[in-house]
Each structure stands twice: as C-alpha cells, then as structure tokens.
Amino acid sequence: MSAAFLLGCIPLVVLVVLGADTATHVLVLVAIAYAILQTIAFSLFLYSAELYPTRLRALGTGCGSAWLRLGSSTGPLIVGLVVADYGVRYVFAIFAGVLVLGALVTYLFAIETKGKALEQLSP
C-alpha cells in the first residue's frame, strides 16, 4: 500500500510543477492519481476486516468508514481555502503531502497479513 501512496503522489507533483495550467493537464493527471489511489480504497475494507476480531469487525470497519467521511467533508473546505489564498497548484501540493504522510504511516505501522490466518491477526 505504501507504494500506491507514493505512485499516486507522482501525478500530483507533476501538476504542482506544471502549475496546473490547463484543464487537460488537470483532468489527465488527476485521473491517473485517482486510478492508482483507488487500489488502496479497494484494499482497505478487506484489510480492516482482517485486523479486527470477529466480535469487533463491524465496529472497526464503521470507525474506518467514519474517518473516510470526515476526510471527504473537510477536503472541499481545505480546497476552497487554499485556492482562494494561494492558487490551484498548491491544492495538489497539499494532497501530495497527505499521500506522503499516508505512505509513511502505512510503512511504519501497517501489519503484514499475507499468509497469516485470521486467528493469528486478531485473536
């Protein structure tokens, strides 16, 4: 997952460097970043279900989904503030920074579940 965070960061950094000067650049590069990051979204519901014990699985998945909703609602507020004060290119810089932070947290704290039984992961 860390690799997907970092790969998704590349098109956003390109937008920062280019200045997000045309709608075509923004459309193509954001679509590429979104496609890469969607692999994380698909994996997260499976990953979180593996980590929580059966008795807490619904609660854990629900809490993760709540954080997703919080990010989805604060994102437009941040975008509006940044565009108004600094310009559109810095929106992509902030999103790239969030992805780098996500990659770091995933690399340092995510538990590898490959090849392990559910009983090992969440007793």
Topology:
Elements: H1 2-18, H2 23-51, H3 57-85, H4 89-109, H5 118-121
How many separate helices?
A: 5
Order of helices and strands: HHHHH
End-to-end span in angstroms?
Answer: 24 Å
Principal-axis shape: elongated
The main pleated sheet reads as:
none
Helicity range of the residues? over 70%
**Backbone CA Rg:** 17 Å
Structural class based on helices, strands and sheet pairing: mainly alpha
Strand content: under 5%
Low-confidence stretches: none
Task: Give a description of the structure.
There is one protein chain. The chain is mainly alpha-helical and 123 residues long. Helices cover 81% and strands 0% of the residues. The chain has 5 helices and no strands. The protein has helices at 2-18, 23-51, 57-85, 89-109, 118-121. α1 (2-18) runs antiparallel to α2. The longest helix has 29 residues, at 23-51. The radius of gyration is 17 Å and the shape is elongated. The relative contact order is 0.17.
Short note summarizing the structure:
The chain is mainly alpha-helical and 123 residues long. It is 81% helix and 0% strand.
